[in-house]
From TrEMBL:
The lineage of its organism: Bacteria, Pseudomonadati, Bacteroidota, Sphingobacteriia, Sphingobacteriales. This is Methylamine utilization protein MauG. It comes from Pedobacter xixiisoli. GO terms for cellular component: periplasmic space. Pathway: One-carbon metabolism; methylamine degradation. Its main location: periplasm. It is found in: Periplasm. It comes from the Bacteria. Keywords: Electron transport, Heme, Iron, Metal-binding, Oxidoreductase, Periplasm, Peroxidase, Signal, Transport.
Amino acid sequence: MLIFVGMRKMKFFVAACLLIITCLLHFSFREIGYTSSGIKLDSLRNLYEKPVAQWPKPNVDNGVKWEELKALPEIDSKKYFATMESPEVVLGKNLFFDPILSGSNQISCSSCHNPQTSWADKLEVSIGHDHAAGNRNTPSLLNVKERKTFFWDGRATTLEDQVKSPIEAHNEMAMNLKELPAKLNKIKAYKKLVKEAYGTDKITFDHVAKALAGFQRTLTSRRSRFDRFLNGEYKQLSDKEVEGLHLFRTKARCINCHNGQYFTDEQFHNIGLTYYKRKYQDLGRYNITKDPNDVGKFRTPSLRDVMNTNPWMHNGLFDNITGLLNLYNSGMQMNTAKPEQKAADPLHPVTDPLMKKLNLTKDEIQAVVAFLESITATQYKMNRPEQLPRDK
């Protein structure tokens, strides 16, 4: 009995010692300037305090078309304000914030794309006409002029085409597109704005679409600390953020999909969140193309200002960035179809092979979070029109 008790105490003592040693090693790594994976922080910083062309090679899979990360340009204030004062943009801004575009006269484009919340709405899914809930998260309109397709499923290819869907959708603005021009033509103030923008005072829906698209093209991200780092202001990023940048491009594999100036490949991927035959099922791109290979695919969102645009994902179910990165860390292959399942059911989703188990440590995940903070700029909260176009 005494020997048994002694062995238990010895095991407890050894376990306690191992825990203490592990903690000491963990803290000593940070204190003496190493990452959790043993890379010297000074060496890592030296690698990235160089022109981008000289950075370490990223971890990109064969066949992936990618672009290196790139800074946003400085905003030409004179040009920007001249654009904001142009007749088309003035008209578009008024229309964007005007609930008259909805069937109820209570919902505007800005109801879901709020300038106070980075041009999204901070809700899981959009809420529209008669408080009807959609089934997808509202994307931010920041940098929308750079998108190749629109909506999570890419069903529109131009901004002018994109504006039609939310205006006429029964669970969004619920406005008959054929009736909207007649509604606007009754307001002399709008007829005047259309005359200034397009040379005619007879308002058509084409005018509405062009003006809304023109205004949305002015919505751009401000430069972040990461942009300034890319331009040589190397003190803008902390050691932890530089570590996160390195992980983003290498071990975490983010750059396979989130690359270029806007951190998106503009492609569609199934990352394992289709919820096939479950409560949150959404077949994504397949609903547009009817190609079984597109089941569960959604457009890669831009990560510009990502920390201001939560909740995340096409269904808005994730509001904790660490938890979300933990999901990616798992590889997300748990629901992918096996060959026999795909043969029996062509619509059974297959998770993109780009999704792989990452084996990131907790510290490494927090470093990636820190980097995402660095690419999130200070919000520019555009003022709403002081008075909407109405006849006195």
